[in-house]
Design goal:
The protein is an alpha/beta fold. It is built from 4 helices and 25 strands. It has 2 domains: 90 residues, Rossmann fold (3-Layer(aba) Sandwich); 114 residues, 3 Solenoid (UDP N-Acetylglucosamine Acyltransferase, domain 1), CATH 2.160.10.10. Helix content is 18%, strand content 29%. The strands form 4 sheets. An 8-stranded mixed β-sheet has the order 7-10-13-16-19-22-24-25, covered by helices on one side. A 6-stranded mixed β-sheet has the order 3-4-2-1-5-6, sandwiched between helices. A 6-stranded parallel β-sheet has the order 8-11-14-17-20-23, with no helix packed on it.
Length: 224
């Protein structure tokens, strides 16, 4: 009998980290792990971590009642392109949730998010589509996060913060708490370097680093 098919788009490191989370999630729903595969445009091997690796075309051709997919792709631009392609082919996006995450009150999220182990989302939070929150990261109260945003491991996003579309926050970033009506804003496509401490707004499209975070420039590089 034909059943649903589940895919992890991306067989690189992050995809392999997502695998056991989604596998456990499906098993809790009584879904056989045999219906879970990696999808990769350039398969590195026929099998990885006990799961088949298929091309996107093979994934579409395989017999299934419905097809579900999660995008385990770190690059937000690639993630957006793949999201559009999958939507055009009428695939359904699955939200991936580790067993030990904490999600409190009034948290609204768009489709296709991945929440890895020890992630915490507190209260009154709005998050867009295809959000990635890596291990030990958290988002506190009254934050608004756009589409295709990535939090690397151990990001600390304190309350009253706005993170716009396609922003990337590196490992260990700390964002100071904003104020009601005066949030700290991380602009669209901004990159916050690993370990940075953000104490004020970050303009769109720039890269910041350091404590306190400042815009990366040739002068800053010479000082390093």
């Amino acid at each position: 009998m034909t059943s649903d098919l589940y895919g992890i788009y991306g067989a690189s490191g992050f995809g392999r980290e997502v695998l056991p989370i989604l596998r456990d999630q499906l098993c809790q729903q009584g879904i056989s792990e045999d219906r879970l595969v990696f999808v990769d445009d350039n398969p590195p091997a026929p099998m990885l971590n006990g799961r088949r690796v298929v091309t996107y075309a093979e994934y579409l051709a395989e017999s299934a009642n419905s097809r579900y997919i999660t995008l385990a792709i770190a690059n937000s631009d690639v993630r957006a392109l793949l999201a559009a392609k999958c939507a055009a082919d009428r695939l359904q996006f699955i939200d991936v949730r580790a067993n030990n995450i904490v999600v409190m009150d009034d948290v609204i999220m768009g489709e296709g998010s991945i929440l890895t182990p020890f992630v915490t989302l507190t209260s009154n939070i709005r998050i867009g589509h295809h959000f990635h929150a890596n291990i030990y990261s958290y988002v506190a109260h009254d934050c608004v996060i756009g589409d295709f945003v990535t939090l690397a491991p151990a990001v600390k996003c304190n309350g009253n913060v706005i993170i716009e579309n396609h922003a990337y926050l590196g490992t260990g970033v700390i964002i100071k708490q904003g104020r009601p009506g005066r949030p700290i804003t991380i602009g669209e496509r901004a990159v916050v370097g690993a370990g940075a401490v953000v104490t004020k707004n970050v303009p769109a499209g720039v890269t910041v680093f350091g404590n306190p975070a400042s815009i990366l420039s040739k002068e800053n590089l010479r000082r390093k």
